[in-house]
Structure formats: C-alpha cells, structure tokens
Amino acid sequence: MKIIFLDIDGVLNCENAYHEDECKYVGDLVSHQAFYSKSKKLLNELIANTQAKIVISSTWRFSGIEWMRKVWEEEQMNGEIIDITPHLRYLDKFKGSVERGSEIKYWLEDKGFYNINWSEEEQQKDIDKSGIENYIIIDDDSDMLYNQRNHFVHVLPSPRNKEGFNQKYYEEALSKLSKSVIELNYLTPSNKQKC
C-alpha cells in the first residue's frame, strides 16, 4: 500500500484560489472551503496513477475522519481516506508543540512501519510486515523529520508559491511515490554505487 499524508490549506487551498473566487464555503453534506480546481485535478491524477491511500495530516483532521470523508466525496476526490494522524500534544507523554513529522512518524510506527536507515534487508522485512511499501508527505509546512526528507513534497507557501499543489509538485510526488521505500532511501544519487 502507498500512503499520501495530506495537508489541505496551502496545498488544495491557495492564494490563486482566493483570487479566482474558488475557495467559497460549499457543501451539501458538510460546510467546507472548496478545493482549488487545478490542484484538485492534479491530486486526483496522482491518486489514480499510484492507487495511494490518503491519511489526512492537515488541521482539517480535527473535524474527524467521517467529516473529512464527506468533504472528500463532495469534492469528488479519487481514492480513499483511510485515517487521520493523531494530535500528539493532547497525549500525556507529549507536552507542548509537536511537529507534524512526529505525528506522521507516530502513525507509521503504530501501523508497524519504521524507517530503517541501516539495512535494506531489514527495511524490506518491515515493509512486508506493515504492508506499507512507500509514503509521501504533501505539505506547505516544513516541520518534518530529517529521515522523512526523501518522502517530503514541500509545497512552498504563499507568497513564494500562489498555486498550491501544481504541476511541479505533482511530478515530484509521482516520482517519489512510484518508487519503493528502498529505492527512495537506499538507491538515491548519492548511493549510485549500489545501482
């Protein structure tokens, strides 16, 4: 299974969407800000091409998974939302601010997936055990962990990027998600001698 950890504000809602009057509140089932049509189209293509499942890491997750699934349906999005990441600052063992990368790491480890950076063989065992062959994070925030860098598609925030999830980010996401975790983390350009 391939996973997309998805942020929404700054990714599917962006400055151009506001200027083009596309971020109106809509919804027959649930009231929400409409997704930017250009970003939505590209994300739908990515999901269709990779068969990835969606885990919502956006603050929109605070409205709950059923609410998010209704938004997904109303926005006519491809794929399936399988979960939302936890909000760790409310767990007893975490106090104060917790970066989004840690919440994603917590979700992955709860499912039995660990980033193993020292052995392709051990990483493959972990992939087989968890069923997670790869994941990417699409977000305009940058609070991810160092060992998530090869999985991170950083959609630059406004004003540096006014388009949200655009063609450039689509191509980066497709390239990363079309590989396995081992290809992404062990067979990088700096490790070409392994190829």
How does the helix and strand content classify structurally? alpha/beta
Report how far the terminal alpha carbons are from each other.
Answer: 24 Å
Secondary-structure element series: EHEEHEHEHHEEHH
Main sheet makeup: 5 strands, parallel
- Arithmetic mean of pLDDT: 89
Low-confidence stretches: 190-195
Instruction: Give the tally of structural domains.
Output: 1
Helix fraction, binned, reads 25-40%
Q: Which outline best applies? A: globular
What is the spatial order of strands in the main beta sheet? Answer: 5-4-1-6-7
Q: Total helix count? A: 7
Rg on CA atoms, Å: 17 Å
Instruction: Tell me what the CATH architecture is.
Output: 3-Layer(aba) Sandwich
Count of beta strands: 7
The percent range for strand residues is: 5-15%
Characterization of the model:
The chain is α/β, with parallel strands linked by helices. The protein is globular, with a radius of gyration of 17 Å. Helix 2 runs parallel beside helix 6 (167-177). The chain has helices at residues 15-19, 37-50, 65-74, 100-110, 120-130, 167-177, 181-186, and strands spanning 2-6, 25-26, 32-33, 53-56, 81-84, 134-139, 152-154. Mean pLDDT is 89; it is low at 190-195.
